[in-house]
Amino acid sequence: MATLNQLERVTETIWELPRSFKAGMRVPARIYGTEKIIRAMDETVYDQISNVACLPGITQYAFCMPDGHFGYGFPIGGVAAMDVDNDGVISPGGIGFDINCGMRLIKTHLSYKEVKPHLKTLVDRLFKQIPAGVGSSGLLKVSRSEFRQVCQQGARWCVQQGLGWEEDLERTEEGGVIGGAEPAKISERAIDRGLNQLGTLGSGNHYLEIQVVHPENIYDPTLARFFGLDLPEQVVIMFHCGSRGFGHQVATDYLQRFLKVMTSKYGLEIRDRELACAPFHSPEGQDYFAAMKCALNMSFANRQVILHRVREVFAEVLGRSTEDLGMHMIYDVAHNTAKLEPHQVNGKQRTLLVHRKGATRAFGPGRSELPEIYRQVGQPVIIGGSMETGSYLLIGTPDGAQTFFSTAHGSGRTMSRRKARKQWQGEALLSQLEERGIYIRSVSKRGVAEEAGGAYKDIDEVVTATDLAGLSKPVVRFIPIGNIKG
DNA sequence: ATGTCC
């Protein structure tokens, strides 16, 4: 097992495991973090990220973001760009079981003062309208053929059904729908699991929060104004969820299929079964890519239905129209995905399959993939913190090129769920937080204990690390006042 | 993360 002194410090925030660290590494591995973060980091990350560095086609480095920690095969926080024209592979473990787990941020014209008297009603209504917890079913019922349309049309399907605004799509990564999704490549079992899951939150670290912008937490006033986050004590809504059991089943199906052919058919030797992969251009690789895109689209649709519920609840409780409430989306960004992107490598343009697992895309200004409204300033990045400590809106930078424009996605756990359950009591934590002005509704007290702020890294330190490294710049920090969770 | 083991 590696120790801190096996890392070579490249800069204040970049720590490298050279190829000599482990036999078979095709590229060095780079972990991002302040010294404090690196010292506290679980050393299993070194082992996992150096395994990733052994995968065929990996380009330049295997990266781990400052919020990185142990995951299935790849660490959470892992970034790996595979050159698909040079034997690059696609690996479900580099994307995550929760395909297109991501963040969505919505602003309002409301102040904390206006919301405070209605906070409990708002949270209670949201908790009812947006089902949370393992195995929860949504209020929206769709047929199997409609679900297949969702797989192909993503959030656009929702907007066509009246579940959102046209502008929501522009403010969603990929316009809320990624091309190339093929429902024929997903199992009936996956459809069974996904059918009733549109508009549901899930469990674990999935949540929806009402948050406030305090003036002292505006780090870039010009950009804050640009995003329309310059009203006094302004209220926003942020949520974190993914493709639920549907994406989980897609990942499970293809992990099994890859394991069958990986060695026998493609001769791929990997260091860990959890790194199961297939050549991107193989039939299996292409099938998974097309199936994964169904889950990407289902997840964009899931978050779109949730946004619609949020608007309905706010309009109902406050007795005002959503337009009047200014409930415009700022952005929706995935942090569990793999996407084909053009990147400069040693002065040449290459097509890379960028795996981001618990890592957020963070394009700098000018990228053609960005919607017109954001192309000049760069991509909004949403980093969600724990229910106690707050979350961030950041912006992508030109320096992000060093990680193929990737940054952190959250705080990152510092301890297991089991350990957190021993240290905190859900019931007691709920009352403590209510005294501090944070009202929480959860389906399980156990879940509350597991998500205690103390079980997570210091999000300010994570954001500082991305800022110092040049991966993303903080714009605004949000403080939670209400939270619903699984 | 996940119908937390078909």
Automatic annotation (TrEMBL):
Record flagged with keyword Ribosomal protein: no
Location of the active site: 409
GO biological process: RNA processing; RNA repair
InterPro entries attached to this UniProt entry: RtcB (IPR001233), RtcB-like_sf (IPR036025)
Note describing how the cofactor binds: Binds 2 manganese ions per subunit.
Catalytic reaction annotation: a 3'-end 2',3'-cyclophospho-ribonucleotide-RNA + a 5'-end dephospho-ribonucleoside-RNA + GTP + H2O = a ribonucleotidyl-ribonucleotide-RNA + GMP + diphosphate + H(+); a 3'-end 3'-phospho-ribonucleotide-RNA + a 5'-end dephospho-ribonucleoside-RNA + GTP = a ribonucleotidyl-ribonucleotide-RNA + GMP + diphosphate
Keyword line: GTP-binding, Ligase, Manganese, Metal-binding, Nucleotide-binding, RNA repair
EC number of this enzyme: 6.5.1.-
Molecular functions per Gene Ontology: GTP binding; metal ion binding; RNA ligase (ATP) activity; RNA ligase (GTP) activity
Positions of Mn(2+) 2 binding: 240, 335
Keyword Cell membrane: no
Chain residues that bind GMP: 205-209, 335-336, 384-387, 391, 409-412, 485
Cofactors that this protein relies on: Mn(2+)
Binding site for Mn(2+) 1: 98, 206
EC class of the enzyme, as a word: ligase
Complexes and interactors: Monomer.
Family stated for the protein in its record: Belongs to the RtcB family.
PANTHER family membership: RNA-SPLICING LIGASE RTCB HOMOLOG
Name of the protein in its database record: tRNA-splicing ligase RtcB
Organism: Nitrosococcus wardiae
